[in-house]
Write a structure and sequence with these properties.
about 450 residues; mainly alpha; about 0% strand; globular
């Protein structure tokens, strides 16, 4: 068993970050593969996938407290030497995942038509996206169960098993996706709907493995109202924080759709890359979460400070390297995702915004991990809401009003990131997040 208070050396951080990177990267890598497969069907199918993926992103990521909040709470118990209590956080988070996920499925099935119509502005994009959304929403409970499983396992610094579970699920989806989209090996040609079916199958297979991991821990599986209430209280702030993110991304997707199929498809490809790179950097933030939470749970404030600075430095350097790679690959990499000339022409503007944002993101995501590991959810909520309301949303809607297109949308995203940098940087220096104790 790993010592939760082992010194925060570079090797120790890497031992947590690299498996976490695999977990975080698995889904966006699969989604990029999915984009590449569906992109061969043309701009309309790619636009339909963009709208569908936007909705699924909102549904699955809105409840990030099931992973990040669970990690923070479980890590504190683990640092205090109480592994059963840490795993119990995972049990209760899994119950929440099932209940909330089932509710979301019912709501989406009932409201899919107006929901997709509003985002896609009606027409052919709506008709293309609707079947994908109805099928893919069936995976939401499984996605949330996996989020809860990742949360408690990160908290007890067990990073390798979640990697195996997630990679297995997405590997199955990756095999099924082209088979069902193009009708290979005698399978029916489902086109865009085949992408959704493949995703549902893989997500539920991974969820089954996370269920099994809880059972073998031999802890009580009953509902515990007191723990549920504590998780919901922390979750309230994280949900509001995520709502700010999603209001921005939904608005951006809806505005991009008003500029045509090529614009929304280009926006989705670059946004998916942005999300992928964010999660690559988030692997270091997850190491910070686990180590900071454990250190504060054991009352070791200096250890928590050491983790914060080391992770921030590593993340900044990694982000600078990624920015250089995508700058040098600007003439080649976009063609991996589509051969549609109209989409490629639209991708130039957001691509360079992506490159410019990466160094800022390296600092922001690292400090996000530190503050979330410390359970500083209320501050994170307020900082994100202000950054969204002041920075992102005004520029997105002005872009629609004045016809700025993707230039206005991605200017808003850049402003949002700079404001977040100012907030989390100030908080980290203030030391107000350094509160010891197991809860």
């Amino acid at each position: 068993m790993t010592d939760p208070l082992e010194p925060a050396t570079s090797r120790r951080i890497a031992a947590l970050a690299f498996p976490a990177l695999g977990v975080l990267a698995a889904e966006p890598i699969y989604l990029l593969f999915d984009l590449a497969v569906v992109g061969r069907l043309g701009a309309l199918s790619l636009a339909g996938l963009a709208i569908g993926a936007l909705i699924m992103g909102v549904l699955s990521s809105q409840l990030t407290f099931l992973s990040y909040g669970t990690t923070a709470r479980a890590a504190r118990f683990y640092g205090a030497g109480d592994r059963p209590a840490a795993v119990a956080e995972g049990v209760q988070a899994t119950w929440l995942a099932l209940g909330i996920g089932a509710t979301i499925v019912v709501v989406v099935q009932a409201t899919a038509v107006p929901l997709v119509s509003v985002l896609a502005a009606g027409g052919d994009i709506t008709e293309t996206a609707l079947p994908w959304v109805r099928i893919a929403s069936l995976a939401v409970p499984a996605i949330l169960v996996a989020a809860a499983g990742n949360g408690w396992m990160r908290g007890v610094q067990d990073i390798v098993r979640p990697l195996r579970y997630v990679v297995f699920g997405f590997a199955v989806s990756a095999v099924l996706c082209p088979v069902l989209v193009f009708g290979w090996l005698g399978a029916p040609r489902l086109e865009l709907a085949g992408s959704a079916v493949a995703n549902v199958v893989g997500q539920w297979l991974a969820a089954g493995l996370f269920f099994r991991a809880l059972v073998v821990e031999r802890v009580g599986l009953r509902l515990q109202p007191a723990v549920l209430r504590a998780q919901v209280v922390m979750g309230r702030d994280l949900v509001l924080r995520t709502m700010a993110f999603q209001a921005c991304f939904v608005s951006a997707g809806a505005v991009a759709a008003r500029f045509g199929a090529a614009a929304v498809a280009a926006h989705q490809v670059v946004l998916q890359l942005w999300s992928f790179l964010a999660l690559v950097l988030d692997s270091l933030a997850i190491a910070a979460q686990a180590l900071v939470g454990a250190a504060l749970g054991a009352g070791q404030i200096e250890h928590a400070k050491s983790v914060a600075w080391r992770v921030t430095i590593f993340s900044t350097v990694a982000a600078a390297v990624l920015a250089a790679v995508f700058a040098l690959g600007s003439s080649v990499l976009p063609g991996i995702f589509t051969d549609d000339r109209s989409v490629l022409d639209e991708m130039g503007v957001p691509w360079w915004f992506l490159v410019a944002q990466l160094p800022v993101a390296g600092v922001v995501f690292a400090l996000d991990g530190v503050l979330l590991g410390a359970g500083d959810a209320t501050f994170m909520r307020n900082a994100t809401l202000i950054s969204a309301l002041v920075g992102f949303l005004p520029l997105i809607w002005l872009s629609l009003a004045f016809g700025w297109g993707l230039l206005g949308i991605w200017s808003g995203l850049s402003t949002f990131m700079v404001l977040r940098l100012l907030f989390v940087g100030w908080r980290a220096f203030s030391g107000r997040w350094l509160i010891p104790g197991s809860s």
